[in-house]
Amino acid sequence: MFKKETLAFFRKLKKNNNKAWFDDHRAEYEAAKADLEGFIQRVINDFSEYDRDLSGLHARQCLYRINRDIRFSKDKTPYKNHLAASLDRGGKRSGFAGYYFHLEPGQSFLGAGIWNPEPEPLRKIRQEIDYNLEEFEKILQGRAFRKIYPELYTGENVQMKKIPQGFDKDNPAEYYIRFRSWMILSELTDEELLSPSLLEKTLKAYKVAKPFIDFINRAID
Q1: Burial environment of residue 167 by CB neighbours within 10 A (0 to 12, 13 to 18, 19 or more)
Q2: How far is C-alpha 112 from the geometric centre of its chain's CA atoms?
Q3: Closest by Cα among 77, 75, 101, 76 to 199
Q4: Mean pLDDT per 10-residue interval, the chain, length 221 residues
Q5: Whole-angstrom Cα distance, residue 147 to residue 27?
Q6: In angstroms, what CA-CA distances link 94 with 58, 131, 202?
Q7: Which of 44, 151, 165, 197 is deepest in the core (most CB within 10 A)?
Q8: DSSP secondary structure letters along 156-199
Q9: Domain count, the chain
Q10: Residue 97, class by beta-carbon neighbours within 10 Å (0-12 exposed, 13-18 middle, 19+ buried)?
């Protein structure tokens, strides 16, 4: 569970997203970051017994920076209104699929999958889905899976309008092959973030997602 002060910091940051305010409240940010880092490390410690690919991973390898890259953005606010972590084999920059945690008051969620892979792993994942469509759909349509993750994330620009080159347009796996990223999400309320049962809920969600992660990483391997 998280401290109330952690959520309060991000609510205030959203209203005061500028460097001067952030510098004045840096101690609050460091406390919020430590709160998330501590939680993520507990998740790693417990879940690595179930997914050995995360063994030896440290939370610091998983957390993303709060600073925004504003070089090519019209939005010049310097900070994200959230903190996030990606629990992947080898850390968040490894290129493998993994488990995601997004902390943002009113918009928090758990997730799993892979986001915008490089061209070669992207091709391999599509090929794996093409070769093993029945297995892939069985994972997505499992009762426990659908209860937590109703569908693949289909946000803006996640899917191509046409099937990519190299695949027939009447391919049975066409819907899934058109994806550029394969992500599953499960919302978390602020009350759940503050609940003692948060760790248990997170571990359960990640366990259900593991076959999905294994399928993608098998393709990349």
Answers
A1: middle
A2: 5
A3: 101
A4: 98 98 98 98 97 96 96 92 97 96 98 97 98 98 97 95 93 97 98 98 98 98 91
A5: 39
A6: 14, 25, 22
A7: 44
A8: TTSB-SSPPTTS-TT-TTHHHHTBS-EEEEEEE-HHHHTSTTHH
A9: 1
A10: buried
Q: Which two tokens stand for residue 194?
A: 């503050």
> CB within 8 A of 132, min separation 6: which ones?
215
Residue 14 sits in a domain whose CATH number is 3.30.930
Using a 10 angstrom Cβ sphere, with 0-12 exposed, 13-18 middle and 19 or more buried, the burial of residue 205 is: buried
| pLDDT for res 72 | 86
pLDDT in the model for residue 58? 97
Question: Would you say how long the chain is, in residues?
Answer: 221
Its domain, for residue 68, covers: 4-220
Residue 67's CB is within 10 A of a number of other CB atoms, namely 10
Strands 182-188 and 108-114: antiparallel
